[in-house]
Amino acid sequence: MSAPAGRAPRAVFFDLDDTIFDHARATRVALAAVRDTEPAFAGWSLDELDRRHRLVLEAWHQEVLAGRATIDQARVARFGELIVAAGGPDDGDRASTLAAAYRSVYTTTWFTVPGAIALVEAIRARDIAVAIVTNNVLVEQQLKLDRCGLTSLRPTLVTSEEIGQQKPAAAIFQAALDRVGVTADEAVMVGDAWATDIEGARRAGIRPVWLNRFRQRSPDTTVAELRTFEPLEQALAVVVRSSPIRAEGKGQGSEGRG
């Protein structure tokens, strides 16, 4: 059973990509830059390139998590697939050049989701433990925490690479519970991905809060929902006080993956 409404948690878990770190925004900026340099992409709008890139990114991300490809190999492979899909040549050198250009822009346009840092700070100020529970490799996710200014807040970082299991598997949530020393009914999980963050948390007995920045239809309206982390007081009420209300806030935040 998850924590009852009104009971403050002892720990709050956050997904990282597109919950704390604005992966979607950084990706879109980087794709816009490479689109301008690759003739094969001229026939695609940025929206279409973004859509196709998300599909191949997710497929190759799974290969990385399974240990069948390195991050660098996956980056080159996905741009090779995109060039061919757009009608360009199967050119490994060109794919490698695009992957490097994309990475260069991507890592210099890192932003946090608006309000995320203030929310984490407010939670830590209440002596509530914070953990980042993420499907990715340790080095990449630690770099994001460092560059986004989260390291000083000392969140516990739990990655699927370390645990050998991905969300929604219960094992990764249990590892987070064990590391911060709480039980499932004392924790809350905040994340943007319904299948991994929300369903995974519920199966582990952890109360979920869905960050729905892009106003998708909720598969279950009994799940607490945030569409933004701003204003802070309203977001904090939903997360810490276990309120079932939806926080509409002032908007969606930035344009904008876990």
Give keywords.
Rossmann fold; 258 residues; disordered C terminus; alpha/beta
Question: Could you explain how this protein is built, in words?
Answer:
- α1 (23-35) crosses α4, α2 (46-65) packs antiparallel against α3 (71-85) and α5 (116-125) crosses α10 (232-240).
- It contains ten helices and seven strands.
- It folds into two domains: 11-22 and 111-247, Rossmann fold, CATH 3.40.50; 24-106, DNA polymerase, domain 1.
- It has helices at 23-35, 46-65, 71-85, 92-106, 116-125, 138-147, 160-163, 170-180, 194-203, 232-240; strands at 11-14, 129-134, 156-159, 187-191, 207-211, 224-226, 246-247.
- It is elongated.
- It has 258 residues and is of the alpha/beta class.
- β4 (187-191), α9 (194-203) and β5 (207-211) form a beta-alpha-beta unit.
- The two termini are 24 Å apart.
- A seven-stranded parallel beta sheet has the order 3-2-1-4-5-6-7, sandwiched between helices.
List the helices and strands and how they pair.
Blueprint: E1 11-14, H1 23-35, H2 46-65, H3 71-85, H4 92-106, H5 116-125, E2 129-134, H6 138-147, E3 156-159, H7 160-163, H8 170-180, E4 187-191, H9 194-203, E5 207-211, E6 224-226, H10 232-240, E7 246-247
Give a short overview.
The chain has helices at 23-35, 46-65, 71-85, 92-106, 116-125, 138-147, 160-163, 170-180, 194-203, 232-240, and strands at residues 11-14, 129-134, 156-159, 187-191, 207-211, 224-226, 246-247. It has 258 residues and is α/β, with parallel strands linked by helices.
